[in-house]
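User: Predict Ubiquitin-protein ligase's structure from this.
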Amino acid sequence: MADWANLPNDLIAHISNRVKVIEDFIAFGAVCTSWRIAATQDNFDVLSPQVPFLMLADGHDDRYQKIYSLSKKKVSRIFLPEVRGSECVSIKEGWLCTVVNDTGEMNLLHPFSRKKIHLPSQKALLNFHDRVGYETNHWGWINLAVLSANPSLMSDYVLMVHHYGSVNCLAFWRSGDLNWTHIDVANFTGGVSAALVYHKGEFYSMSHNGKVRAYEVAGHNTSDQPIVKTRLVVEMAEYTFNPHVAEYYLVELSGALLLVTQFVKSNRYYPNGHGFYNTSKFRVYEVDITRGELKEEMKTLGNLSMFLGNKWASWIDSSKFSGVKPNHIYFADKWLNHCSYLDMGAYNLEDRKIESFYPSLGRRSTSSICTPTWVMPSLTK
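Assistant:
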């Protein structure tokens, strides 16, 4: 039998460079000491696409989170006490934006390395001009968070967040800033943002009344320019919020900006007035930024697959991975802010049918698991 531990170091490094899936790369580093030395970020293509994990709260110990791998069909646990007592918003680059419920402390948290980047607090976010302060306004949460670049790879990046509640506000923080910079949405009709994305150098938001706006944020060394430029890109009257629409998503896909609408239907109601809501269908359109309109509805994604849920959106080329079906939208949501009710499934754009992808829960669950969150597996220094 070959002595794998004593292979030449340059050969081991070459082998590690050939591993493209993070799960396999971690397993590679667990073989032995010499392989672990080679399993560093420098020997891994951090830009290679990955299949998102589904992160669920561990019902037995709040210091841990469950991680479900769709490609491996495997559930594991990670030690992550930093999210205990916090609201979490997942970001496509593999980070979480966390807000501590009691103090309003905010951080960017990398769930796999547990690295933290401190942000100005939620109190600082809400104490803006004549807005109600954090001490007297406890209803609301950060429901959207988007990065312009991955903090694991870049030192110059922008984080934009939307606070939803009795105070609705849109703000951004540039790496190195001491405080949030607010974007005045008071004059925006239907100013509450339903979706947020970073696309081709600008942030884009969509409100529930169908208005898509672009925000160009200036860098630190551009003091002669406005710190943020805002413009209306698309106005779609037919997308006024209605009871059958659960969520809107803006998705950057292969250089195009897509609008994804998620529809739900109610199955039955309880005496307290709450009901079970199931996702019924999705509709996907490309946004024509130049002409300010939607193109015809997209009937297929080809080999691509989307992942949506909890205001999070991403996609992969499913032909490069096992266990992921092409032309499907994988979704995971919690309706009506109930920690006890999840709606998860895989929607086939071809036949418009929905099937389960998490076998132990099916499509509907009344377990104690709280909000499911997609997280992108990534490495960080």
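Residues 365-369 have pLDDT under 50 and may be disordered.
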